[in-house]
Design goal:
Layout: H1 3-6, H2 34-40, H3 43-59, H4 67-75, E1 104-106, E2 109-110, H5 146-149, E3 159-161, H6 165-182, E4 185-192, H7 198-216, E5 226-233, E6 237-239, H8 249-256, H9 268-279, H10 281-284, E7 289-295, H11 306-315, E8 320-325, E9 333-342, E10 345-354, H12 388-397, E11 401-405, H13 414-417, H14 427-436, H15 438-452, E12 461-463, H16 467-496, H17 508-540, E13 552-558, H18 565-584, H19 589-599, E14 603-609, H20 612-618, H21 623-630, H22 633-643
Parallel strand pairs: 3-11, 4-5, 4-7, 7-8, 8-11
Antiparallel strand pairs: 1-2, 5-6, 9-10, 12-13, 13-14
Helix pairs in contact: 6-7, 7-8, 9-11, 11-12, 14-15, 15-16, 15-17, 16-17, 17-18, 17-19, 18-19, 20-21, 21-22
Length: 655
Amino acid sequence: MSAAAIAAPGSNRWAGRKVPLELVALPPVETPSLWERIGTAPAWLVSLAVHVAVLVFLAGITIIVPTDALRTIIESEITPEDIDQFKVDNVLTPEVGNDSSVNVLSPSMAASSMDRPIEQEFQQEVEMVRFDASLPTANAVEVPNNEVLTTMFDAEGMTENTGGVEGAIDVLTREIASHLRENETTVVWMLDASLSLEDRRNALAERFEAVYAQLGNTGDVDTNHLRTAVATFGEGVNLLTTEAVVDVAPLVAMIREVPPDESGKENVFTALKAVGSQMLPERTREKRTLMFVIVTDEKGDDDGDLENVIAQFKRYGVPVYVVGNAAPFGRDKGYVTYRWKEGEREFRLPIPVDAGPETVMPERIRLGFWGPGGEVENERLSSGYGPYALTRLCVETGGMYLVADDTNQRKFEPQLMRSYGPDYRPIKDYTRDVMANGAKRALIEAAQMSTAEEIPNPQLVFAAVDDTRLRREITEAQKPMAVVSYRLSALQAKLEAGLPDRPKVEEPRWRAGFDLALGRVYAQQARALGYNTVLAQMKSDPLPFERENSNEWILRGAPESDAGSEVKKLIRQSSELLSRVIDEHPGTPWARLAEKELATPLGWEWRERNNEVLRAVESGVSPAEAAKMFAPEEERERMRRQMQGEQGPQNVPKL
């Protein structure tokens, strides 16, 4: 058999056998040339080779295009559009719980009822404000094309504690320089015109020219490409500059001479919409970077328009920065110390202002501490964050909330509080999250209940000139305790309804808030039951005085309580929850309140006292004269002024 037959395709005759190598050797074949190979190659292979060669050639070509020319090419396609098509829907605000009084997501935002679908819109009326300046309507503003509309900023939005106005201005200087390095920039300063901001406005005026001088000294920015505009707001808005200017020297005098707004209103969001519409051509027509800086010490009275303002500024890539105050922890009211004169007298007092809370809705119950010196509410705890609406505006637009002042008496480490940041998602997302978890919903509803129906503190001092007087005083003290017990029971039931969902809560802020609220309610219930017990015992069998001149009984906290098994159970439950708050959230406002609650005794004991004022009154002296007789010098002077109608200021300013 020939070698060709052995190697023929399809032959398997020799499968599995050993074949000598010489039997399978093929005859020699001539090697074709390169051109012969190309001539016989498939057409697709030749085409592929040609295209690869062309791409390699093109990849080696470099063209240098100036940046300005590229910018011209990109911007030449911009076509204005009508602004009305970008109007946004109102936020969604479902009610929290059936028949609940918790129907407000922020002080000026009404919620829809529970029986409506969560996707349904709510309608809200916004108070119309008369403006001092003539500003254009939104329809008159040019709108950029999609390229400008989709410009995004990093929305870190964390509150920065700057240590004062000077520190805040330094941060703003760096932010302005950063924007100016990238593009020509226009800065719009929005100044709160209220009485309380006079010192801060003056501090800004002192630093204003220095800021721009510092920018010019950096060497890598051109301040000729920086424009500035200034506006003030209160009940209305006043644009101090008809257009943005390069020379800021005249603006300093304008800032110093801002007429104070004594209305007590800060319509910051309405002012932002109006001035934003006026200044928007700087962004849309002239393609400049536009940034707003708000200087205030309150949260704003018109935050119901928050979502629309966010949509307007975020749509055009306009960051908003705020130089403001830290919000009080879980409370609407903060305090600003203000000095003023009435006639010849000068007053310097802390005046309540709308400064919080730091969250969409208060997430902290309002519950006082019983016992002497125990009203920790007066400590005005700091949240470490700005008020919700303004801070969220900064978050969404890529700006920052700069804390220039923290008027609260007790503050907490800013770095630690970063782990307990509020939820800055859209309000509809916040609401949906609250509705989905029973523990969160219970906390919000309990906080609202405690605010709507304040729980009074009990009477702790009882005149006892004789047993009849003592029993009469005890009877009067027992009457409000029925209300206290009812409201505490309602809070307990509301919070306990959320216990099944408590293990599902992951955020440390919500875990701390729920545990603290329920722990405090358990503690107050234990005290209330013990209080009623000791009053009933004293009323039925008054204790005798051990000292001859004693004429008054005082209830003081005691470590032990003999009010029964129910009280002991409440004490154990309270201790477990409050201890967990302290262990898991050290150094926070929640831990501070838990420590105070645990340090306040849950039991009661009677202590006798000699009250000379009471003794004088019993002898026929008027209460006012008796108090004056035994009061310290400072107290006597205060009472003298009170007797003469000088007890305090008659016209407290509206800040």
